[in-house]
Amino acid sequence: MNGKAVFTLLLTMVLGSALTVIYVKHQSRLLFSDLRSIQKQQDQQVIQWGRLQLQNTTLATHSNVESRARKDLEMRLPENVELVRLQ
């Protein structure tokens, strides 16, 4: 091989390598952007989960259950309670 052919081959390889580095760096930036977006969604969902747990705890309190039973279902405590023991 003569010097000009070797130079052309090396120049082609260097340019190909440079273009590959540019492409990989671009893909890396795109994937990092996607990762940040997904992490932001995850953070929002964790916050929402905490709110739902707090709401569930609030709704499950005895006073809230009793209040809703009286108001929505029109339930009341029985006036006379009789115990019957079966043998």
How does this structure look, described?
The structure is a single chain. It contains two helices and no strands. It is an all-alpha fold and 87 residues long. The model has no long low-confidence stretch (mean pLDDT 93). It has one domain. It is 77% helix and 0% strand. It starts with a helix and ends in a 16-residue tail after the last helix.
Could you list some keywords that capture this structure?
rod-shaped, 87 residues, mainly alpha
Brief write-up:
With 87 residues, this protein is mostly helical. It has one domain (3-71). 77% of the residues lie in helices and 0% in strands.
Please specify the SSE layout and strand pairing.
Blueprint: H1 3-59, H2 62-71
**Count of spatially separate domains:** 1
Q: Specify the overall morphology.
A: rod-shaped
The low-pLDDT segments are none
CA-based gyration radius: 36 Å
Order of helices and strands: HH
Distance between the termini: 110 Å
Secondary structure tally: strands: 0
Biggest beta sheet attributes = none
Label the structural class: mainly alpha
